[in-house]
Structure formats: structure tokens, C-alpha cells
Amino acid sequence: MRTAYRCRAYPDQEQQAVLNRTFGCVRVVWNRTLAARGARYAAEGTSTSHAESDRALTAMKKDPALAFLTEVSCVPLQQALRHQHQAFTAFFAGRARHPRFKSRRSRQSAHYTRSAFTLRGGMLRLAKISTPLRYVWSWPDADVTTLDPAMVIVSREPDGRWYVTFTVDAAAPFPCRRPGAPSVSISA
Asked: At what angle do helices 13-44 and 74-92 cross, to 10 degrees?
């Protein structure tokens, strides 16, 4: 089970530029891959696998018109493809609606896995950003210096506020007792 801690972030101008460029690249990869999936399904009637979309990302990076994709960390781009694959899996299982194109006017986010960030002593460093990202830890019950996040999500809301979310693997909670059921005692 995973739990998440969301905090306000305060990137400086240079960090904002890199993160905005990353958001744009994530959006381009998502939208182009979504369009390619739709075109392939319309033409051939077959779906696109995650491996095929991953190969398409490699081809996009080699395209001179999309050379800007190499200026940002590749992890958020790969995560966008992974999320799109999960969205289509949920759609075909009947649990969600068809994935939609991303807009630059909505919430922007980039997902960084463990290979693209470090969190040491409460200082968060992201790939392709030279200085630590400043944020305000707002969880008094949790110590950020002992946190071992599996993923970090940096986002910007349409109103301009920035956030960083730390997702952490956590133990499953005990199930709640049903009303009227006898209480069970667990001894160690």
C-alpha cells in the first residue's frame, strides 16, 4: 500500500523554467502517443502495447523537430507512457473513461521515480536540476529526514501554486471493526 505526503513547493526561476519545460515535454509525449494509438486503432483495429509506445518515445527523441525532449529527464516521459498504458487498461476493463489529451491550461505534473531524485537530510534534488527544490514540510507526525519515497510528483496548479508529493510504501492498516461485531484482541 502507498501513502502520500503533499507539500507546497517554492521553486526558483531557474527551477520553474526546467519544470515548465518538463511539463511541456510530458504533455507532448502523452498527446502524440495518444494520437498515434487512436490512429492505429482506427486504421488497423489493434491496440498499442507499452513496449511499442516506449519505442515510439525513442523515435520521438531522435526526431530533429523534437530534439527538446532530450533536454529534460527521461523518467517523467517514461512515466507518462506508463500512466497512459494504465489508463487504457482501466478503460478496456470498464473502470474508467477513454484517456483524453492534456491541455497546458490544466494541472501540470511530472512523476520522478527513485532513479531521478534524491532525498537526503530533507533536501530534495531532481534530475536535470542543479539546486535542491525548496518546499515546506507540513506533516508534523512524519519526519522528512527518515522518509524513503518511492516516487516524487512535482505539480503546478492552474492558479500558479506549486506542490511536491512524496509517495511512500506503507504497511496495510488493520481493518476496521464492523459495528456490533465482537472485538478481537491481538497479543504479541
From this structure: 40
Per-residue model confidence as pLDDT tens for the chain (188 residues): 889 999 999 999 999 999 999 999 999 999 999 999 999 999 998 889 999 999 999 999 999 999 999 999 999 999 999 999 999 999 999 999 999 999 999 999 999 999 999 999 999 999 999 999 999 999 998 899 899 999 999 999 999 999 999 999 887 766 666 666 665 555 54
Q: What is the chain's alpha carbon radius of gyration, rounded to the nearest angstrom?
A: 20
User: Residue 124: beta bridge partners?
Assistant: 119, 133
Query: Inter-axis angle of helices 74-92 and 50-62, to 10 degrees?
Result: 150
Q: Which helix (DSSP H) or strand (DSSP E) does residue 8 occupy?
A: strand 2-9
- Domain residue ranges of the chain, discontinuous segments joined by +: 2-13+105-169, 16-92
Cα torsion 63, 113, 28, 41: sign:
positive
State phi, psi for 135 to the nearest 5 degrees: -145, 165
Nearest to 150 by CA among 168, 132, 127: 168
Give which of 22, 21, 55, 20 is closest to 36, Cα–Cα.
55
Residue among 39, 58, 114, 53 nearest 89 (CA)? 53
Going by the DSSP 8-state scheme, the letter that residue 150 receives in this structure is S
Predicted TM-score (pTM) of this structure:
0.87
Q: Which amino acid is at 181?
A: A
